[in-house]
Amino acid sequence: MTAGGPRVEVLALTGPVFAALADGDLAAANAAAPVPLTPVFAGPEWAPVWRMRAAQVAADPASAAWVTGVVWDPDRRLAVGRAGFHGPPDDRGMVEVGYATAPGHRRRGYARAALAVLLDRARREPDVRVVRLSIAPDNAASRRVALPFGLVEVGEQVDEEDGLEVVYELPTAEDT
């Protein structure tokens, strides 16, 4: 939790939930999800993420503990977004974070709170040495969420789906 912001948890999802969401089947997703999901989770805007995660978890079931989960507001008992890592730490000890807040819950501190939860987890994981975050150059809102955590610009990359992104990183250990 960030000071003055909402309290959130990032709850892991499973292969069956990813597959159901990738198919747009909210009923099947909710039958296997740890908390009730809202229609935005099974909508077309988020479907590409779920298809990617379903394939990833099918190929590597252990990655489910790392990848996109549900951002849960336990006080309101409401799923407000998705957040997680793109996968387990790579050979460098790097994990990349991603997050999105559901429409209707934006501008309430949920993205910042979810990022805080992910950074806290990364700092506790012995195999994680650095956290990466990539943001489109014109996405001022995402920069406002991320940069107060101390992420530093390290370069640019071109993502196949998202185009040009500015890459930010944050070491998780003193000796990094």
Mean pLDDT reading: 93
Q: What is the 3D shape?
A: globular
Query: CATH superfamily name?
Result: Gcn5-related N-acetyltransferase (GNAT)
The assigned CATH architecture is 3-Layer(aba) Sandwich
Name the helicity range: 25-40%
Number of helices: 5
| Cα gyration radius (Å) | 16 Å
Task: Report the CATH topology name.
Answer: Aminopeptidase
Would you give an account of this structure?
With 176 residues, this protein is α+β, with helices and mostly antiparallel strands. The protein has one domain: Gcn5-related N-acetyltransferase (GNAT) (Aminopeptidase). The protein is 28% helix and 27% strand. The chain contains 5 helices and 7 strands. The chain has a 7-stranded mixed beta sheet with strand order 1-2-3-4-5-7-6, covered by helices on one side. α4 (110-124) links the parallel β4 (94-101) and β5 (130-135). The radius of gyration is 16 Å and the shape is globular.
